[in-house]
Amino acid sequence: MLMMRKLLLILLLAALIYSCKKDEHVKSALFRLVDWKVTELTMPYPNEISDLQFLNEDLGFFVNWDGEIIKVTGGGERWEKLASFPDYNLRSVFFMDENIGFVSGYQDYCEDPLAGRERAILLKTIDGGKNWEVNHVPFNILSLQFFDKMLGYAVIEDWNHNPIWYAAKTLDGGLTWQEMHRSASTIVPSLHFISRNTGFVVDTGRVYRTDNQGEDWTLIVESGEDYFLSNIYFLDDNIGFVRSYLDLYKTVDGGASWSTLRHPFGWGTPMDFSDELNGLAFGGSAMFTNGSHQLPDSASVYSTADGGKNWKETRFPAKIYINQVVYPSASTAYLYGWGTWYKFEKRK
Hints:
Layout: H1 2-22, E1 26-32, E2 36-41, E3 49-54, E4 60-64, E5 68-73, E6 78-84, E7 89-95, E8 101-106, E9 120-125, E10 133-137, E11 140-146, E12 152-157, E13 165-170, E14 178-182, E15 190-193, E16 199-203, E17 206-210, E18 218-222, E19 230-234, E20 240-243, E21 247-251, E22 259-262, E23 271-273, E24 279-283, E25 287-289, E26 292-294, E27 300-304, E28 312-315, E29 324-329, E30 332-337, E31 340-346
Antiparallel strand pairs: 1-2, 2-31, 3-4, 4-5, 5-6, 7-8, 8-9, 9-10, 11-12, 12-13, 13-14, 15-16, 16-17, 17-18, 19-20, 20-21, 21-22, 23-24, 24-27, 25-26, 27-28, 29-30, 30-31
């Protein structure tokens, strides 16, 4: 009987230790909003994030300016450094699934942009980040999207040409790139493909569509505003969004037609949709004063449950700043800014 009691005690202690370890990066609820429970996640890798991606509400990847590639699982409970390339600023991350992923990066060449040739890299993994293939490229890749190990699309920054930004594709896994569409302005274009052949590019106040992998482009949206369009992205083959300073353009038929919706937040406000109806945006202007960031005096979260027709504003009870919003499911969202993660969970 004594041995049985000791065994039960050991098992209880082991379970308690495991549960504490599992939640060591999740703090108690920071505060509660009307619709959301907000929790701050303690990130063991505090370097400033440059790009992030969540495949679902439990699995995500991000890269930072210090060359680290991080995997997060369990909705923020577990963090794992997959690789480190300290000589590079990692700029973009794209995983097709939990195994196949791509990361772009570059060395800082601000003093002599033309000296940046061969200083940029494209990283590729097919085993979930255990091993990485390193390819050197003569330009900076700002964003990535792949459909298999070979076919991919990207927005490229090339200081050897003017304008310096253009959309490109690769047929050999990133070894070589073919220009598809060069920006007509000094604004970085936004690019998104909904299939291997069909994609969209936003360039200033216009949206173009291709159905043959970028060989030809057709103008399908012209905003008519004095403000630039930005941030095109699709949830699936049919539902997509483009944002301007005043309006949100939405399609539910793969870009064949677009409806115009007015939104209450600014052009640079981070925003994401989890599905056709549920969207989330964060508003709060930050300042850069005397060499340091200053938190905004006020901030709000905007949510919609009808596809962007109406937005509900909820004021925050604390000073925080957010520059990236990821909304992988209708019940869970992740907000990031200045080294701090917040997990938003919809209150039932």
